[in-house]
Amino acid sequence: MWECDSLRQPLGAVKRMGGARQRTGRVTVAWMRTGISVAEARALVLAEAQPLAAETVPAESALGRVLAQTVRAPRTLPPADCSAMDGYALRAADLARASAAAPVELAVVYEVAAGGRGDVPLKAGEAARIFTGAPLPPGADTVVRQEQAQAQAARVRIAIHPKRGDSVRRAGEELRAGEVALEPGVKLSAAALGLLASLGRTQVAVHRRPRVALLSSGDELVEPDAAITDGRIVASNAYALAAQCSDCGAESFNLGIARDTPAELEALLRAGLSADLLISSAGVSVGDHDHVRPVLEKLGCRLRFWGVNMKPGYPLAFGRFEPPPGPLVFALPGNPVSALVCFEQFVRPVLLRLAGRHTTERPLLRVTLSETLRKVAGRMHFVRVRLRREAGRVFATPTCNQSSGVQRSMVLAQGLLVFDAEATELAAGSEAQVQLLDLDFLSGACW
Amino acid sequence: MWECDSLRQPLGAVKRMGGARQRTGRVTVAWMRTGISVAEARALVLAEAQPLAAETVPAESALGRVLAQTVRAPRTLPPADCSAMDGYALRAADLARASAAAPVELAVVYEVAAGGRGDVPLKAGEAARIFTGAPLPPGADTVVRQEQAQAQAARVRIAIHPKRGDSVRRAGEELRAGEVALEPGVKLSAAALGLLASLGRTQVAVHRRPRVALLSSGDELVEPDAAITDGRIVASNAYALAAQCSDCGAESFNLGIARDTPAELEALLRAGLSADLLISSAGVSVGDHDHVRPVLEKLGCRLRFWGVNMKPGYPLAFGRFEPPPGPLVFALPGNPVSALVCFEQFVRPVLLRLAGRHTTERPLLRVTLSETLRKVAGRMHFVRVRLRREAGRVFATPTCNQSSGVQRSMVLAQGLLVFDAEATELAAGSEAQVQLLDLDFLSGACW
Predict the structure, then answer these.
(1) Which B residues, 390 through 429, put their C-beta within 8 Å of a C-beta on chain A?
(2) Does B5 have pLDDT greater than 60?
(3) What CA–CA distance (Å, rounded) separates B188 from B402?
(4) Does A378 reach chain B within 8 Å, measured CB to CB?
(5) What is the mean pLDDT of residues A77-100?
(6) Contact at 8 Å (CB) between A241 and A343?
(7) What are the phi and psi torsion angles at A276 (to 5°)?
(8) How close A370 gets to chain B, by Cα (Å)?
(9) Whether pLDDT at B19 is above 50
């Protein structure tokens, strides 16, 4: 657990430490706050997160990345009027009197395939066989679909009078040369990548993916392939957090497990300084044995806050290595559920913002409580819930065991129910909000 | 465009061809249906899609994959009763009379760090300093948090009387040895990967990712890095479709562009037969020049349907190479918007099902039309719309140009508004359903 030396006081008693620099026994701490609300903490972390610089990458690997440049059309698309259908290019005026009773026959003088050209101007009474995407021959102004035409040898009989321009795609219908195709800030979808390909763009500037360094610390921790002997615990948080990073488009690397000695912590933390964001997770809270904070501070990290009034997840610290652009740092609690919930509330929004994304929040669902929840006032609770649709409502039921040590409560959770800090009861049947983790839950219903 | 030789009739006139084998001019066609509804087509494609076989992969790369085995706990977690807090392990009975007025002092006889052991039984009147995750020493039954204790030299003073078992995590609270941790069919979340790591599982059996072969066909097509000369079109669909595949967890490889000759088509299609799913996309509709279908059939593909009553996207064909497990085949229309919309309606659900996913549909949103839409009856329209939240409602507005050749209509679309086949008008202010493509739209509101 993160301890704050000069603040070894009951939780909640000290709301602010800063406004001026204060000296603790060991280091200078400026502006560090403690025991703050979830909303304050979220505002503080987002204030530090600016989109990362651009990098140029192959368009093929840019799905989901955020564009960091303006893309203009290098040429007009389509470059000339062309057919939107397989059929016959002709002059609408020739069919002015055509009807079912009096079909009009035109001479089919040539054929224009897609990719072909029709340079010889059509004269009155003439048509050209044409295929979708093929340029309209000079003289033609309209296309009649083949289903509406009867072909016979070199003639075609048509019993309708189309509007001038029917089934013709106009030059520049998609884009004119120089026109803006995609604006900076756009998240690149499959359709956008198709458009880029159409424009001949194979490289594109996007905001860099955040790189995250993951550090576990604790003498009791081992890697998952190790023999588990008495009291050993797998450093599983690094694996769950890596997956969470990947889920929001960030890359991560695992610095490994640091024993609880300043030298080992310093060596591993130094290896993470090249990252955009450094996450340390204590295997368990380390209380008196805590060396992470002094080592962070020795390396130039200035903590912004420690301790957020939430459960699970109180012992969370956030800071930044200075001078900028040193990495941001989150020191997450060691309990697996606490670490995952803290990631959801604070790290995920920061990573999305670093990647240039505009929206950083999970969707919220309005739910009905299936059972009464109680707690003491003071901390916002994030209750892991299962969700069920019934009679037009969504019912939320807490997962089995809400202990922050029980990972299965998070494995089973489809969402996090927000139980406000000052509230003490949410009665069965009342409404609440859930941060939706399992987007598949939305499938199969209309919202 | 796909043509059906024996069925060159007005659309909609022939609803079924099959029930018995019929001979066309070229090949035997069995059970091929044409001009079917979107719902029928969806049922037909899903009927052919079974989850792929399992493969064993590193757990670290299994995020989002669907588990294909039962995972049991190899050992009890936690293996013994342990502390949930930093504090003091003790016997609750010793504090039965403790209060603020009469605190009780206990002798701190040793310390148990996380990863340590406390083998010497605690006697009455004794406590052990303990840290989160550390095993409870014999004799102790309760932990008092350090915030509720005053330590002085080798003694600790406590002014509360805890319940027996407070702040203790019971052995097996997470899982007992042999208990099921994860069931087959679970989509592996970050939390599930954390649990797997805790169990020491580094390899896990999941359903294989679908492999998709992408083929473009058309004499007019070029790759995006080519010089665009008269009438040439970039084979952009392969790039957009590859991104769509990736977006639903499938792998794809690009077979390249086949010229419109049977020999070239056959060579490229053969190269795609190792895939689980083969997608051909005509650069433009090929009408009389169509060689794709006879080549597919020559190679053993049996078409299930051709032509779905939808817009964009009518000329869609679906089949399967036989005998099973030959790849499934989608022949998508060449218009970029048509191809993307067909992928959304049919290919995406199939790929998700192949990957073992249970939910295959996009979330639906109830929207209010901001303008009146009209069409002729007969085909379901998928109208590309922008979405806007206002006064508790979501308003849908069609994107600029709904031509199926205009890719920007799909780039800008946040959803596809479903305009039922037989409907002819959706009045401004009326309600409709939208298939939500842009899940970020859900952010920042409560649903």
Answers:
(1) 401, 403, 405-408, 410-411, 413
(2) no
(3) 38
(4) no
(5) 91
(6) yes
(7) -85, -25
(8) 18
(9) no
At the topology level, CATH places domain B82-169 in Molybdopterin biosynthesis moeA protein; domain 3 (2.170.190)
Q: How confident is the model at residue A403 (pLDDT cuts 50, 70, 90)?
A: confident
Flag if A289 and B439 touch (Cβ within 8 Å).
no
**Which residues sit opposite A104 in a β-bridge?**
A158
Closest in A202, A335, A361 to B225, CB measured: A202
CA B322 to chain A, closest CA, distance in angstroms equals 31
Angstroms from A367 CA to nearest CA on chain B:
9
pTM: 0.90
Domain range B5-52+209-354, its CATH number among 3.90.226.10, 3.90.230.10, 3.10.310.40, 3.40.980.10: 3.40.980.10
Question: What letter would DSSP give residue A377?
Answer: T
Give the span between the Cα atoms of A410 and A400, in whole angstroms.
10
DSSP 3-state assignment of B278? strand
Architecture per CATH, domain B54-77+174-207, reads as: Alpha-Beta Complex (3.90)
Give the tens place of pLDDT for each residue, B385-408: 999 999 999 999 999 888 877 899
Yes or no, beta carbons of B366 and A447 under 8 Å apart:
yes
Q: In percent, how much of chain A has pLDDT > 90?
A: 73
For residue A218, is pLDDT > 90? no
Give the chain A residue nearest B87 (alpha carbons): A287
What average pLDDT does the structure give for chain B? 89
- pLDDT band with cut points at 50, 70 and 90 for residue B289: low
Q: Which two tokens stand for residue B207?
A: 């359903």
Beta strands, E only, A40-171? 54-58, 71-72, 82-83, 87-90, 104-112, 126-130, 142-145, 149-152, 155-158, 168-169
Q: What is the 3-state secondary structure (H, E, C) of B208-271?
A: CCCEEEEEEECCCEECCCCCCCCCCEECCHHHHHHHHHHHCCCEEEEEEEECCCHHHHHHHHHH
CA-based nearest residue in chain A for residue B336: A194
Inform me whether the C-beta atom of residue B219 falls under 8 Å from chain A C-beta atoms: yes
Interface probe with A: pick from B111, B132, B402, most Cβ of A within 10 Å: B132
According to the CATH classification, is domain B364-442 in 2.40.340.10?
Answer: yes
What residue spans define the domains of chain B?
5-52+209-354, 54-77+174-207, 82-169, 364-442
Q: Is B289 in contact with A113 (Cβ distance < 8 A)? A: yes
Q: Do residue B446 and residue A364 have CB atoms under 8 angstroms apart?
A: yes
